[in-house]
Amino acid sequence: MSGLRPHARTRSPDGREWEIYAYRARETPPGRFRTVKRLFAPRAKEWTVEASSWAPYPITKRWTTGRELLGQVLASVEGQLARGDEPMPRNAKQVL
Asked: How far is CA 71 from CA 48, 67, 85, 86, 93, in A?
């Protein structure tokens, strides 16, 4: 699966379409040559789950979680968005 595709898509009762992404960012060390170091930097241990919607105005919500709980957090966010609830997965920390 491509890293640019959403892991899930859902529609909330108000008609808003949501795309849910999961990815691990690279930990970039500070200092000179940051762009070169970023290419070879290891990935973070924490997964980031991001729910995005663009119409009628953009909304993005993010959470971080561990690998063992990633599937549970993805399913929780998808289900809560489909029901029209504010997504608050139990096993993830919200990133502001």
From this structure: 12, 8, 19, 19, 15
Closest CA to 80 of 63, 67, 65, 68: 63
Number of Cβ within a 10 Å radius of residue 6: 14
Q: Global pTM? A: 0.82
Q: pLDDT 10s digit of each residue in the chain, 96 long?
A: 456 789 999 999 999 999 999 998 877 767 787 777 777 777 778 999 999 999 889 999 999 999 999 999 999 999 999 999 999 999 999 998
Q: What is residue 74's three-state secondary structure?
A: helix
Residues pairing with 52 in the sheet? 19, 60
Domain ranges of the chain: 8-95
